[in-house]
Amino acid sequence: MNRRRAVSLIAGAAAAARIRPALAADSAASPWPQFRGDAKLTGRATSALPPLKVAWTHEAGGAVESSAAIADGLVVVGCASGQLLALDLATGARRWAYVTGSEIGESSPCIAGGLAYVGDLRGVVHAVNLRDGSGAWTFKTKSQVKGSPVVAAGRVVIGSYDQHVYALDARTGATAWAFETDGQVHATAAVDAGVAHVAGCDGLLRGLRISDGKELFQVSSGGYTGASAALEGGRAYYGTFENEVLGVDLASGKVLWRYQHPERHFPFYSSTAVAPGRVVLGGRDKLVHALDAATGKAAWTFATRARIDSSPLVAGGKVCIGSNDGRLYVLDLAKGTRLEEFDAGSAVTASPALSGGRLVVGTTDGAVLCFA
C-alpha cells in the first residue's frame, strides 16, 4: 500500500465515529443502489459532488472494473479476485466478503430488498444477503455475465453472453422468463413503466415487458452495442461500436438523431448520462462528449489522455468521469471546462458512484477510492 493510501485510511478511521450517524442518514436519503444510479440508468445524482480529496482507500485484492452500489452507509463492489465486497461508506472498513468462485468483471451490483445481486464471468448470477454477506441463491447462465442486474417488479433482469435476457424471481432466483436475442447481451437493462430496454450486440434496442418477457418493440441501432441506454423524457440515448450516439423516440420507435464526431471515428463503450438538455458520455477517441439532447449536436468535447470506458456521473452542474489515463475528471456540465483532476495511479474503467456527499470509484490496480 502506498503512503497516500495509508494516510487516507488512517484519516478515515479517525473521523469515523464523528460522521457515521449523519452519513448513514444522508446515504439512505440519496442512495446509489445500482449501475448508473437508478433503473432508468440516467447516471444522475441528487447528492452534491464533493471535492476530489481522498477520504479513504481500500485494497480490493484484484482489479475493480465493477461500479459500486451504495445504500444505507454501505458500499458494495465486485473485483477480479472473485469477491463481492461490502465496505463501510464512512471508513472503508470491510464489513464482509462474499466469494463467487469466479472473476467479477464489469457486472456492477444492485442492492434491493436486503440483497445484493451481481454476475460473474463464469455466468453465475449471485444474490447475497446484505446484512452478513451470506449467499441467498445463485442462477447459472450458459456464458459469462458482464452486464449489471436491475431489480423491478420483484424480478432481477440481467443479460448474458449466452444471447439471453433473463428475468429471475428476486427472492428465490427462479426463472420467470428468458428472452433469446441474436447476439451477446453486454448492456444493462434500463427500466421504465414495466418495460426493460435492452441494447444488444445484435444491433437492436428491444423493449421487453417485465411481467412476461413479451417483446413490445425493437429499433435497429445500426451496429454492435455494448453500452447501456439511458432513458429520459420518452427517449433512449446510447452509443454504438459504429462510432455513433443515438437518440431514439420510444413511442414511435424512430431514431431521432445520430451523432458522430466529424474527425475521430471510434466506438462508444461508455454509457450515457442525461441531464436537462444534455447527453454526456466518454469515447474510445479519448474524448468526453456532451450533446444537445434534442438535436444530437455537439455542445462540447473534452480531451483526456487515453480512451474512456468509464460512464459519467452528473450532479449539480458537474460531470465526473474516469479515463484509462488513470485520472478522474470533474468538468463543468455547461461548458466542458476542467474543474478538478485526480491521478488515481492506474486506469479508471469503472464508473463513479455518489451517495451522501461521498464519491466512490475503483481502479484497475485494485483500489477502491472514496472522496469526500
Overall spatial form:
globular
Task: Look at the helices and sheets and give the structural class.
Answer: mainly beta
What is the correct CATH architecture? 7 Propeller
- The largest sheet has its strands arranged as 1-32-31-30
Which whole number gives the mean pLDDT? 94
Overall helicity:
under 10%
Q: Report the uncertain regions.
A: 1-19
For the largest beta-sheet, the strand count, sense and barrel status come to:
4 strands, antiparallel
CATH class: Mainly Beta
Rg over alpha carbons: 19 Å
Total strands: 32
Relevant CATH superfamily: YVTN repeat-like/Quinoprotein amine dehydrogenase
Number of helices: 1
CATH fold category name: Methylamine Dehydrogenase, Chain H
Number of separate structural domains = 1
Gist of the model:
The protein has 372 residues and is mainly beta. It is 7% helix and 42% strand. The chain has one helix and 32 strands.
Task: Provide a descriptive summary of the structure in words.
There is one protein chain. The protein is mainly beta and 372 residues long. It has a single domain, classed as 7 Propeller (Methylamine Dehydrogenase, Chain H). It has one helix and 32 strands. It has one helix spanning 3-29; strands at 54-59, 69-71, 74-78, 83-88, 94-99, 110-112, 115-119, 124-129, 135-140, 150-152, 155-159, 164-169, 175-180, 190-192, 195-199, 204-209, 215-220, 230-232, 235-239, 245-249, 254-259, 273-275, 278-282, 287-292, 298-303, 313-315, 318-322, 327-332, 338-343, 353-355, 358-362, 367-371. A four-stranded antiparallel sheet has the order 1-32-31-30. A four-stranded antiparallel sheet has the order 2-3-4-5. It has a four-stranded antiparallel sheet with strand order 6-7-8-9, with no helix packed on it. The relative contact order is 0.15.
